[in-house]
Amino acid sequence: MSGESVGIQEQTEGRYVDLRRIDLLESIQDEDQTWAKLAPRWCVTNPEPPWKVCLDATCDCLSAGGALDNLERRHAEDELETVYSAIPNPERQLLTLAHIMVSRGLLTEEELARQISAVRARLEAV
């Protein structure tokens, strides 16, 4: 196989994470519902989304529990940067954490879809 044809193939395995695309996360990325776009809808001026603290705590808990070391997670996030490059931080960090958890079997795509539906239902009820 020539070096040219290797470059054309999509890389699916990184050193720290499976780089294959996850349909659910791709669809979320395509929705383009970033905090910068959603905050004005609720007249919120805080530049940090309210869920950022929970995201950071989740990462810390996964590391402390031995499920996902913080350094490994950061390396995996770096590898996934090209997969989720269309979305800004901290949304990118959230999508990459979900990607890592699904690809490592810590969470199924179906479980994640159920949780997303539950959160959306609560938001729409407001």
TrEMBL record:
InterPro entries referenced in this protein's UniProt entry, alphabetically: CN_hydtase_beta_C, Elect_transpt_acc-like_dom_sf
UniProt protein name: Nitrile hydratase subunit beta
